[in-house]
Amino acid sequence: MSSFEPYGSCTLCPHACAVNRLSGDRGICGETGELRLATAGLHFGEEPPITGGGGSGTIFIVGCSMRCPFCQNYQISRGGAGRAVNSEEFTEICIALGDEGAENINLVTPSHMAPTLVEYLISSRKAGLKLPVAWNSSGYESTETVKIAERVVDIWLPDLKTLDKEIARRIYGVERYPEAAASALLTMAGFGRVEVDDKGWMKRGLMVRHLVLPGEMDSTRGILEWFADNLAGRAWLSLMTQYTPVGVPGRQLNRVEYEKVLGWLDEFGIDDGFVQDLVSGDEWLPDFRRPNPFSSDLSRILWRWDTGFVRDL
To answer: 35-309 — its CATH code?
Structure first.
């Protein structure tokens, strides 16, 4: 368990629930001061400059400060599938990902464990880790937490779910999300512009991800307008269309909605980034009960919480 004082009265996310996670109490994120991981492996389904040629070295962290009702990673974000690792095991995982060809270390849902991750990544650097580190977050984090993470983070991959307070309350159950996420993203943008290597792989900077929700098009338009006004030229945008109702009633995005979003990109002059193809079906959804939660085309698992290293997968 980390000895970092922020866990003693935790305010790492804007919930500021102030529980003593060092004593074993759990915050809204569902976690104590122990860093718990679910899986680690090479992921080939991220944006091209993140996937690169060798895949993104994704490390799935247990817990989350959000409670999105359709979360595709619910088994680890709130289901608890994972176990605690110390600095030495974390470093071993990072080094193994690099040895297997990962282009980066991609920390998935890291914000509630920021102090420990900083501590462990500093140790990993000392042990020889040279890969850029990506912060793959919900966007719901305090600016103070972003500044803590900046010590070790190179690439910022936050969500921007909505800037509409009513939608934030109704769908995500967090009315303060718009204000908090906008502040966090602007802080991230202040650390420098996007940098790529000679292959086009991302090495530094901010890529904002937005998942388009069916039937909530005004929310997406507001996101695009805000991005054009505040982050154009300073960051990339990744528009995602993979919304799939998991455990909730609903539908996927339709072609009319998809074409409307493409038109808004032209209207606002946004051309730095990526748009996901219109996704249908749910075959791509992960199941963390399987040896490889993703399809073999999307992922190669190197480590699992229940078995340790599984290099033969």
So the answer is: 3.20.20.70
